[in-house]
Every structure is written in structure tokens, then in C-alpha cells.
Amino acid sequence: MSINHTRYITSIGSLKRKDNSIVFKNQKGNAYLPIEGIRELFCLNEVSLNSKFLDFISKAGITIHFFNYFGYYSGTFYPKKQLVSGRLTVQQAQAYLERRIIIARAIIEGIAINIHEILYHYYKHDKKQLKNYLDWLKKDVPRLIEKEDNITHLLWIEGLVWQKFYASFREFLPASFLFNRRVKRPPDNPLNALISFGNSILYAKTISQIYQTHLNQSISFLHEPGEGRFSLSLDLSEVFKPIIVFRAIFNLVNNKKLQVDKHFNRKLNYCLLNDAGRKIFISEFEDRINMVFLHPKLRRKTTFLNAIKLDGYKLIKYLAENKEFKPFSLKEMI
């Protein structure tokens, strides 16, 4: 499945090099992918490859993201990182020790601002029941996080923001797509399946964008730095979830492009998008993340995908020059 500079592989098969092309082989035969213009490969099913292929991909500057059966991100292979800065890594670590709260506050406020913008659309279209939550996001959340100096308490506030967001879905989503609570591993109903799949793809996209900066992927501020994960990608992707993942979900569900009986596989204790459902969601997701808008400060056109990288640069400015870090705002488009 081809979308812009990204190729999605959704079936079982193998990847090999053939001259200067990528060959994907499955039971239907060979599919040839010219290497020019490809930046990312998403392997959403069981795919075999060898070190010779990885060397070929590395020299071409292509990143490969791997996902497991449940649609969760498993790992990334990317070329040897060229943009390495020991000085910035030290500054990033110092900021974690000394200024973590400031950055965490900014991210949570950014989440609240963007959720507010998404829900305000429904409020304007006769969903007046959303007013109390909108007021809470706009007035109370900034006050709550401004006076909070404990990271555990900040994370509780962030969790409450998402919890109330999920509760608001009953005002504008059909009953077949509602849920009682957020269940991740594995998702237990269609809406949880969509959220988990969308968040996983966005996380991988964010990894690729941070790769293009000098930032260290393992040093984060809102999420606790942990073993075996790129926690900074979790941080920078948060404010984009309402804009990209949830906008995609709301459009597909409310316009009946995704339907429970057609696009999901249900088992005893989990629910997953089927192949047709994944292709529909990926197409919508890519349309959203590559949507072009005029950046008011840069005075040029850009995309939400590039805005993720720009947030990385904002963080660098904060770390190196102490310039205010303010994540992307859908309201201001910066």
C-alpha cells in the first residue's frame, strides 16, 4: 500500500533487494517498489528479511517500522544516525533533572488546547452538552498544571484530560463505537482497536521525525524514560493525537466508512481491524498527517507531519537557548 513517501506492507511475505528496487514477495507473487522516494516502510504483518537487505535499506536512508499481530509497535530499524550531538544530549539530560516539570506542563496544556479545538467543532454543531468539558479544558486545566510541581500529580491531570475526552464520545459517536473504558493490550472493542492502531502508527511516525533532529530519543519529560523504548516520541506525539488519530477516527466512524460488522475481527478477549479496515484507516491517517496548511510564523506551507519535527526543533531551542517550549497548537497552527 503506497502513500506519499511511505509504504505499508499489510500481508505476510518477504522483503529482498533486486538491483535498485525493493521486492516484496507473498503468495500473490512479487511486487516491485522503486527505492527512489521511499522514506519509510511499515511492516504490519509477518515479514522476513536478511542483513543484506537491511544494508541496502540503510544506504538508501530508509526507516522500517515493525508491528506485531495486535497492531502494536514492535521496533524500528533506521540507518546509522548522522545527527548526533553530545552537547545537546547533556543539555537534554540536565533539563530532565532540572526543568522536567516545565516541559511536562507545556505538553499537557498542548493536549488540552488541541482536544478543545477538536470538540469545539461538535459544540458548534448543536452538541451543547460539551460546554462544561470545554470550559474545564480552557480554564481549569491551565490553572491546575500551573501550580503543580509533582510529576506524578501532573500525569494524573493528563490522565483525567484523556478520560473526560473519552467520556465525551457518547455525545457524537454512534453507539456501536462507544466503550466503557480505554483498554490497550489487547484492545477489546472496535473503538479501542482504532485508538491503539492509530497511536502506534503516530508513535512510529514521530520516531522518524525525531531521527531527523539532534535530539536523544531515550530522554523524555512527560513520560518516564524507560528501557527499550523511545520515550521522547511518546512525549512529542501526544499533542498530535487529537489532531491526527482522533480526527481520522471521528470522520471514518461518523461517515460510516468503517463499520463494526465489516472491518473488525472479534475474538474472545480482543478486537482488531481486519485488512480492509486497516487500509481504510491508513488512507485517512495519511491524508490527515500530510494535510497542508500555511504556517503563520514560517510564512510557508507545511504539513502536520513536518510540524512534529518542528516541535522537536522548538524543544532544542528550549534546551540550548531557553526559549519557551510551546507544542503545536491547532488553534494557532504553530
UniProtKB/TrEMBL annotation:
UniProt entry keywords in alphabetical sequence: Antiviral defense, DNA-binding, Endonuclease, Hydrolase, Magnesium, Manganese, Metal-binding, Nuclease
Gene3D superfamilies xref list: CRISPR-associated endonuclease Cas1, C-terminal domain (1.20.120.920), CRISPR-associated endonuclease Cas1, N-terminal domain (3.100.10.20)
InterPro entries xref list: CRISPR-assoc_Cas1, CRISPR-assoc_Cas1_C, CRISPR-assoc_Cas1_HMARI/TNEAP, CRISPR-assoc_Cas1_N
Any one Gene Ontology molecular-function term assigned to this protein's record: metal ion binding
Protein's UniProt keywords contain Hydrolase: yes
Keyword Nuclease: yes
EC number assigned by the record: 3.1.-.-
GO BP annotations listed: defense response to virus; maintenance of CRISPR repeat elements
Annotated Mn(2+) binding sites: 158, 223, 238
Regions crossing the membrane: none
Origin: domain of life: Bacteria
Cofactor: Mg(2+); Mn(2+)
Oligomeric and partner information: Homodimer, forms a heterotetramer with a Cas2 homodimer.
Family to which this protein belongs: Belongs to the CRISPR-associated endonuclease Cas1 family.
Biological role: CRISPR (clustered regularly interspaced short palindromic repeat), is an adaptive immune system that provides protection against mobile genetic elements (viruses, transposable elements and conjugative plasmids). CRISPR clusters contain spacers, sequences complementary to antecedent mobile elements, and target invading nucleic acids. CRISPR clusters are transcribed and processed into CRISPR RNA (crRNA). Acts as a dsDNA endonuclease. Involved in the integration of spacer DNA into the CRISPR cassette.
Name of the protein in its database record: CRISPR-associated endonuclease Cas1
Organism (species): Candidatus Infernicultor aquiphilus
